[in-house]
Amino acid sequence: MKHFEYARVASYEEASAILTTTDESRVIAGGTDLLGALKDDILAEYPRQLVDIKRIPEASGISVKDDKLRIGAATTLKDVAESSAVLKYAPILAEAAKTVATPLIRNVGTLGGNICQDVRCWFYRYPHEVGGRLHCARKGGDTCYALQGDNRYHSIFGGMKAHATPCTKKCPAGTDIPAYMEQLRKGNIAGAAAIIMQVNPIPMITSRVCAHFCQDECNRLCNDESVAISNVERSVGDYILEHCDDFYKVPETSTGKSVAIVGSGPSGLAAAFFLRQAGNDVTVYDSKQEAGGMLMYAIPAYRLPKEIVRKLTRALAGMGIKFVCGTQVGKDVEAAKLEKDFDSVYYATGAWKRRVIGLSGEELTTFGLDFLIEVNQWMKGKVGTEVLVTGGGNVAMDVAITAKRLGAKKVTLACVEPRDLMPASKEEVARAEEEGILVMPSWGLSKVVEKDGAVKGMELKRCVSVYDEKGRFSPQYDEGEKIVVNADSIMMAVGQLVDLSFLDEKYKMQLNQRGLIDVSEDSQMTSRPGIFAGGDATIGPATVVQAVAHGHNAARGMNRFLNVPEHVCNGMKKSGETFLTFDPAAAVKKDAARLKELPAAEHNIEREDAFSLTPEQTLEEAGRCLNCGCYAVDPSDTAPTLVALGAIIVTNKREIPASEFFCEKLKADERLQPGEIVTRIDIPIVEGAVMHYDKFRLRDSVDFAIVSVSSLFSAKGGKMQGAKIVLGGVAPIPIHAKEAEGFLIGKEINEENAERAAEIALQGAFPMSCNEYKLVEAKVAIKRAILRVA
Prior knowledge:
Layout: E1 5-8, H1 12-21, E2 25-28, H2 34-40, E3 49-52, E4 62-65, E5 68-72, H3 77-82, H4 84-89, H5 91-99, H6 103-108, H7 111-115, H8 166-170, H9 177-185, H10 189-197, H11 203-209, H12 229-242, H13 244-247, E6 258-262, H14 266-277, E7 281-285, H15 294-297, H16 306-318, E8 322-324, H17 335-341, E9 344-347, E10 353-354, E11 366-367, H18 368-373, H19 375-378, E12 386-390, H20 394-405, E13 410-414, H21 426-434, E14 438-440, E15 443-451, E16 454-467, E17 473-486, E18 489-492, E19 496-497, E20 531-533, H22 536-539, H23 544-561, H24 584-587, E21 596-597, E22 610-611, H25 615-623, H26 638-644, E23 648-651, E24 655-657, H27 658-663, E25 678-684, E26 690-696, E27 707-716, E28 719-728, E29 735-736, H28 738-744, H29 751-761, H30 773-788
Parallel strand pairs: 1-3, 2-3, 6-7, 6-9, 7-8, 9-20, 11-18, 12-13, 12-18, 13-14
Antiparallel strand pairs: 4-5, 5-25, 10-19, 15-16, 16-17, 21-22, 23-24, 23-25, 26-27, 27-28, 28-29
Helix pairs in contact: 9-10, 9-25, 10-12, 11-12, 12-25, 14-23, 20-21, 28-29, 29-30
């Protein structure tokens, strides 16, 4: 084992003080679980100190007081199994304790340790020094290996979320992707939409234009293709737009607060939605004639049809959001006036300004963004025969493809980045090459080749590196390797700048080192109280979903500033479902769903290239999501019995019902606060009940339960009067079969009713690929427990 400090304490107060003040401390009593975990180095964080509570006088012992059986947390399992008081008042607990491991373990292991022990999943227990690659979800890793590996001893009721999944963490908006996939599998598309709308009110747009970093982190990539999250999101987004009255509702109450938003791009629209949802009066200003910002003017219609943007802005207007277009802040209305007229202001002005790089002949080139905005003018034949586009991002791809579709015979795209570092998405690069565009990675700009003021081409020089040792953009070139690309039109798409001309000597904000508006990360507030900013104005050109995330963050910050509670719409609350589920049959499908595209010959700049998935395809693709979490089972023999007995877990700070302690969190000790220690277990004395603990395992000793049933029954005249059934070994937490209990009350104790009760107890189960036998064993165990009462 690694080195750790050891403290033997004489009181729970002393132990609690150490745990509260010393990071990475763990309690040790019997140590039968913890010491093995330390030896194999399986814990995500190795403890720096162990606090031994065995010598605390009141830590162990069994007594009867106030109609309760009281058992100290440090009481050994041997003592629990052999105690006359336990055998008299809670024999089920004695039976459970006697089945734990071996006599040697029971002589040392404690009741408190048994209920707080770690899982026995072999993936979790795989030693770090043997293979750190098995860093499973429960240890802070990305996946549960049982989902696609050996799962014969794992849950048949689903998993539980250990932490945010990799796909969710990679999404700038924080979309709970597995959660909405699960709702789709259940046929609840409205529920899926509601989950997305919690953080992203424009999924019909982000699904079409965003890079979808989430797909790069999908755990399926270890074996096949990632879930086509963007395509599924697109279907849900289309549904939202078709049912916009259900998702863009006028708030029921008004806060009396008014806010202004400058810029109607994705960040401004997202902020407007969340601010209006909370009941604020929202006015959005934009310099263009139509709302939508870059979504309307810069992204080609073949990727994002303009009518989709218009439908979205109409839906937002239907919420009561006011759009004031054709109005430029700093020219048509002063920033100071907005600050005076509104309770709070959010600046989401985007990046529309041309970046000048100081290239010889640069004045002869065209700004790529202007080309996209004024594309209708270019349709009149101005595009040229040979076009060179410079830049490696999605805007550059849009410019190149649009130029090709407008009639350019040859389009070349050059960028400093190597192919694997190009900012554009892989899909957009592939689309460009399919259109016949020549992509030239690792080439930088040297000078424009011109004759008599007319563009003839561009001299390029080889780029040998893009970033310095600190990861900063600092391209280095080989001046000895140069080529000339012929072109009669050069489109510059090497980035845009933020226009902050609305700031002047009279109206200032603090800027950061990059010359952008400096904001607080947790609220988007600027140096001016009540004035907020986000999107490109604060971080430079970024993705649409990053802008959405800024808009949401700003809305939360503005609501806090205005003392407005954040609003949660009906249907947007957490479902309260305990377990994660997935579709084992659909999950084996290796290939992701792809959008049906128009034939290349029919591509143009006005019609969308691809069609959304059908409802059947959407459901099938959602079925490929593994709903990553922890699918290990709770290993404790005593925890299910304590739930059945209605026990109370007593700590040094409070009392927690066993049903809450064991059945609400993935790890029982997650219920404990800093410095909180389980000190005692109190069990109400139950008279006249037939109680037993039945355990199915491969060996009579050592093994943990593959299936266990803790049951308490009372009967009269051959009919069931009272029933408690709690299953262990079948889920990450004990399963309290309340519906089966309710079914049994008043029923005759016979084969038919026992069979039906067993079916009810397991009706929510869905076995994984290797553990269907657990269903059979659980049904048999429940049935036998019921019939034993007769």
